[in-house]
Amino acid sequence: MDYTPALLVLSLLQVFSMGTASPLPKDVLFMKSKVKMNAAQLTRKIDSSLKLLVPAGWTISPHLDNLEGLSSIVRVLEGYENLLSETLDGVPQLKQEVSSLRGYLDAWRHGHCSRDQGPKPPMQGRLAQLLSHKEYVHTVGLEALMGLKDFLNQLLKNLDHLGTC
Fold first, then answer.
1. Tell me: the pLDDT tens digits for 35-66?
2. How far apart are CA 140 and CA 159, in angstroms?
3. How far is CA 89 from CA 22, 53, 159, in A?
4. In the chain, what is the greatest distance between 2 CA atoms, to the nearest angstrom?
5. In sequence order, which residues have a C-beta less than 8 Å from that of residue 118 and are 6 or more positions away?
6. Contacting residues for 91 by C-beta, under 8 A, at least 6 apart
7. How far apart are CA 12 and CA 1, in angstroms?
8. What is the DSSP letter of 69?
9. Are residues 98 and 155 in contact, defined by beta-carbon separation less than 8 angstroms?
10. Three-state secondary-structure class, residue 4
11. SS3 label, residue 1
12. What is the DSSP letter of 124?
């Protein structure tokens, strides 16, 4: 019996299965642990800054931002990064760290997710509300800082969303 066609089919199946875009679990675990460490550190720094910048008793709108996968996480981080006012004490350093985290996640997304993500859905939640009032730089900057802290806390509780594109 000639097993050549069967071996050829098995070889092709193995080649095609190795060419999928899904990342290795070890890579995903490393990425999640790095994001967890950076997000927790950022949250602590934001807490310290908020104690100095925000009057006692100031509350913000309760709308939470979308956490529907890596693309939406990158978009929300980018939105908050753009809203943070550099005139507030300590915020330029926080903005740089948010940029670093966003850049890391964006590079991960480009390396591990398919290129065609379809059209971007419109922003929703607190970020969309803040983007519509950008002219109030200091107020929006403080609310963005508080919203970013809430978003990072939400991300820390839902790290599994990092595994989806």
1. 999 999 999 998 888 877 776 666 666 666 77
2. 27
3. 42, 8, 30
4. 83
5. none
6. 49, 84, 85, 141, 145
7. 20
8. S
9. no
10. helix
11. coil
12. -
- CB-CB contact of 141 with 85 (8 Å): yes
Cα–Cα distances (Å) from 65 to 39, 115, 120, 126, in that order, read: 16, 24, 15, 6
Average pLDDT of every residue of the chain: 78
Task: Give the separation between CA 165 and CA 152, rounded to whole angstroms.
Answer: 18
pTM: 0.73
Name residues whose C-beta falls within 8 Å of residue 6's C-beta, 6 or more positions apart in sequence. none
Distances (CA, A) of 64 to 1, 71, 126, 148: 65, 17, 6, 10
Block residue for tokens 């908020």: 50
